[in-house]
Amino acid sequence: MNKRLVAEFFGTLWLVLGGCGSAVLAAGFPGVGIGLHGVSLAFGLTVLTMAFAIGPVSGCHLNPAVTLGLAVGGRFPFKDVVGYWFAQVLGAVAASAILYVIATGNGAAIGGFAANGYAEHSPGRYGLGTAFLTEVVMTFFFLMVILGSTAKKAAPGFAPIAIGLCLTLIHLISIPVTNTSVNPARSTGPALFVGGWALSQLWLFWVAPLIGAVLAGFVFPKLEE
Question: How many angstroms separate the CA atoms of 126 and 180, rounded?
Answer without folding.
Answer: 12
